[in-house]
Amino acid sequence: MSAVEARLAELGLTLPEVVPPLAAYQPAVRSGPYVFTAGQLPMVDGALPTSGKVGGEVTPEEAKELARICALNALAAVKSVAGDLDRVARVVKVVGFVASAADFTGQPGVLNGASELLGEVLGDKGVHARSAVGVAVLPLDAPVEVEIQVELADA
Question: How many Å apart are CA 146 and CA 96, to the nearest integer?
Answer without folding.
Answer: 4
